[in-house]
Write a structure and sequence with these properties.
There is one protein chain. The chain is an alpha/beta fold. It contains 14 helices and 6 strands. The protein is 50% helix and 11% strand. The chain has a 6-stranded mixed sheet, sandwiched between helices. Helix 1 crosses helix 6, helix 5 packs parallel to helix 9 and helix 6 runs parallel beside helix 9. The longest helix has 27 residues.
Length: 306
C-alpha cells in the first residue's frame, strides 16, 4: 500500500547486521542469469488498456516486493511500455527521500508499544532506533518487508523499481499521482486508531503471521487473480477490527478517487501513460478500473486471470 515510501525507507536502511537469524539479504543474479530471466519472463500482474480522447494509456497493478526473477517485464508489459511515453506512479522516489529527511520525528509511541517495536526491529537485525525517525506505519511496513525476505521477497525486485529504472534509462518523464503529504495523511492512523492498528500489526509480526498472507498476495498478484486480491481483507488477518477496517478503507479505497482524477487529467492532457499503482487499488467498489470507466474511459483487460 505504501510502495514508494516503503521502498525508500528499506533501501536507506539496507540489510542490517548479518547474523544467522537475520532476514537474509537478497542475492543478486549474475549477468547470464539476468539475461535468461529477461528473455523468458512471463506476464505477471494485472494490466488494462484504458482509452479515451482518441488515444490509449495503460493501467498496471503493481506489487511493492518481488522475487529476483520477477524484476523483468513480460510481453504485455513490454508492449505497454513501447506504446506509452510517460510513467505515472503514486510517488516518484526522487521526491521522497529529501522530504522524509526534512520532516520532524513523529510523536513517540506509548512505552509498551515502543518496546515491542524495538524488539521487532532487533529481530530484523536493524540498528537500535533506526526506524524511529519515520512515521509509525512506515516503521511497521518496513518490519514486514524485512520479514518477507525470509521467503525470498525484496523491494528491490518489485515491478515499480524496474519501471522507474527503465524510465531513467530511457529519459522518460515520471509523474507522481500524489504528494508526500497526501499519502502520509492517508497512511497515518488517527490518535484513536493508532494503538489498535499498531498493536494488531505487531501481533502479526510476533506470531509469525505476516509471511503466509504475503505469499498468498504475491501468488495472486503474479497470476493477475483479482478475485483473490479483492478478498484480501477477508484472509489477511489484518483488517479485523472496526479501527483496522477504517484505516484500510482510508489508505486503499478512499485514495482511489483522487488517483483516478489525476490519471484522467494527465491522459486528458494528451499524455500516453503507463500507470503503475498498487494492485489492491484495482479491487473493491472504488476500484481504479471502475472509477476510470465512470470517467468515460474504455477499459480493456490485457492480462487478467480467467
Amino acid at each position: 500500500m505504501i510502495r514508494t515510501l516503503l521502498l525508500t525507507v528499506s533501501l536507506a536502511l539496507g540489510a542490517g547486521t548479518a547474523r544467522a537469524t537475520c532476514p537474509p539479504a537478497p542475492a543478486q543474479p549474475g549477468a547470464d542469469q539476468a539475461a535468461a530471466w529477461a528473455a523468458r519472463a512471463p506476464d505477471r500482474g494485472p494490466l488494462w488498456r484504458i482509452s479515451r480522447d482518441g488515444h490509449s494509456s495503460y493501467l498496471f497493478g503493481s506489487l511493492h516486493v518481488g522475487k529476483a526473477d520477477w524484476a523483468y517485464p513480460g510481453p504485455a508489459l513490454r508492449q505497454a511500455w513501447g506504446e506509452t511515453e510517460v510513467l505515472a506512479v503514486e510517488l516518484d522516489p526522487a521526491d521522497v527521500g529529501p522530504a522524509l529527511a526534512a520532516m520532524p520525528p513523529p510523536e513517540p509511541l506509548p512505552a509498551p508499544l515502543a518496546r515491542r517495536m524495538e524488539a521487532q526491529a532487533a529481530a530484523a537485525c536493524l540498528p537500535p532506533a533506526a526506524l524511529a525517525r519515520f512515521p509509525v506505519m512506515l516503521q511497521i511496513s518496513t518490519l514486514m518487508l524485512f520479514e518477507s525476505r525470509r521467503d525470498g521477497f525484496d523491494a528491490g525486485f518489485g515491478q515499480d523499481l524496474m519501471l522507474l529504472a527503465w524510465a531513467k534509462r530511457d529519459g522518460r518523464p515520471v509523474q507522481s499521482l500524489e504528494s508526500l503529504e497526501e499519502q502520509l495523511a492517508a497512511l497515518e492512523p488517527t490518535a484513536a486508531e493508532l494503538p489498535i492498528v499498531v498493536d494488531g500489526s505487531l501481533k502479526q509480526l510476533q506470531k509469525g503471521q505476516v509471511r503466509a498472507p504475503l505469499r498468498k498476495m504475491a501468488d495472486a498478484w503474479a497470476r493477475a487473480d483479482m478475485k483473490t486480491l479483492a478478498d484480501y481483507p477477508r484472509w489477511c488477518a489484518c483488517v479485523d477490527t472496526p479501527d483496522e477496517r477504517a484505516w484500510f478503507k482510508r489508505v486503499n479505497d478512499d485514495r482511489n478517487v483522487q488517483l483516478a482524477e489525476r490519471i484522467g487529467q494527465l491522459h486528458g492532457a494528451g499524455q500516453r501513460l503507463l500507470v503503475a499503482v498498487g494492485a489492491l487499488h484495482m479491487s473493491g467498489p472504488q476500484a481504479l478500473p471502475t472509477l476510470l470507466a465512470r470517467q468515460g474511459f474504455t477499459v480493456e483487460a490485457v492480462h487478467l486471470a480467467k
